Amino acid sequence: MRFRSLLNRRIDRRSDELDELGEDGGRGDADAIHDLRVGVRKLRGLLRAGRREYGRDEVDALRDRLRHAGSVLGAARDAEVLRERIERELADAGIAADLAAFALAPVVADLAVGQAAAAEFLAGDEWAALRGDLRSLTATSASGASAAKGAARTFRTDLARVRKRLAAARADGIDELEREELLHELRKAAKRLRYDTKAVGRALPDRAAAESITRRAETVQDLLGERRDALAAAAHLTAAAAEAARSGVAASPLGVLADRLRREADDALTAAQDEADRLDREA
């Protein structure tokens, strides 16, 4: 099998999923919006892997359009994740109902705006044209590298990116803001390795070893994602506590909860660093 044939099948499958999910996403269904966002990310990875097969210019143009789609869908999904996390933390901490409602109100408003923007995008011509162009891309005959060669090239590239970004995040002499950005890039690279290996892994010559490394990358991704979510919730609760204080509302429980979330974020980072060390040794 040619690598392009494998990519065609995977891209068509993802396109089918986008078609099926679009209607539910347009109604604001949180799970559908999440799955659409993930599907868009996976398509971007498949296209990147197929630059040689489809042509760099055409692939990069499609990936830019998918990036925009992901950004629109991501605003709704990020607000939903933040709302769920804060709601759960407030309930677990036994925060009084009136203070909890005060803290949640801005997130609920952001979620409504994000869902409306996602619905408008999914009903529009831009989304329909993008899906049509993805179909056209895979309609031509396949040639080029074998599936095994193309899959191995994709895995090597993805793994090298993970290791490069891991080294950058470990470097001395960088400030906190830069390190945060590097950790975010490491998380994205680990996610890319995971998605691509799942998509083309069956064609890899040493599939078992690749999947073992990918499982470690997935653990790093999950831990860094947990840290990111905890820090986002902590930042929101800190801002809510300050706003409550300005309004004359006693809000110290929100500050206490925010401090606990920051400690959880520190623990997740330590665990992610340990797992990243194991990944680096195994690779």
List keywords for this structure.
2 domains; 86% helix; 0% strand; single chain; 283 residues; globular; mainly alpha; 10 helices
Topology:
Elements: H1 3-26, H2 30-49, H3 51-54, H4 56-92, H5 97-122, H6 125-137, H7 147-170, H8 176-200, H9 207-246, H10 252-282
Summarize the structure.
The chain is an all-alpha fold and 283 residues long. The protein is built from ten helices and no strands.
Structural overview:
This protein has 283 residues and is mainly α. It has 2 domains: 1-138; 147-283. It is 86% helix and 0% strand. Helix 1 packs antiparallel against helix 2, helix 1 crosses helix 7 (147-170) and helix 2 (30-49) runs antiparallel to helix 4. The radius of gyration is 21 Å and the shape is globular. The two termini are 27 Å apart. The mean pLDDT is 92.
List how many beta strands DSSP finds: 0
Distance between termini? 27 Å
Instruction: Specify Rg, calculated over alpha carbons.
Output: 21 Å
What spatial form do the alpha-carbon principal axes imply? globular
Helix vs. strand class: mainly alpha
Instruction: Please tell me the overall pLDDT.
Output: 92
Number of self-contained structural domains:
2
Beta content comes to under 5%
Number of helices: 10
Indicate the low-confidence ranges by residue numbers: none
Biggest sheet character: none
Order of helices and strands: HHHHHHHHHH
